[in-house]
Amino acid sequence: MLYIHCPFCAEKRDEQEFHYAGEAFIARPVNPEECSDEEWGDYVFMRSNHKGWIWEQWEHVSGCRKVFVVKRHNVSNDIAATYTLAEGKQHFLEQYAAEESA
Ligand SMILES: [Zn+2]
Hints:
Elements: E1 3-6, E2 11-14, E3 19-23, H1 37-45, E4 53-59, E5 67-73, E6 79-83, H2 85-101
The structure holds zinc ion.
């Protein structure tokens, strides 16, 4: 059972109040009209599916109904943090930049 902190309600609530809304920050092709069917298919259907820390979107359906970002370890179910979409994108890009330079 997960207990998820909603950044908008500022409360930690039971997982049953939330709805999983997919992987966060999937990069949309810059020019969709120019990409191949395979590239478009990868964008629509393929997900990273790795073990470790993942970035997810969740919706607080039984509360404020807002979508936010959860950084969760998909093996241990530990939650590092929850963010609004804008805050989460900033942290995601900082982590991505740090991994690229390492
Ligand atoms: Zn909420």
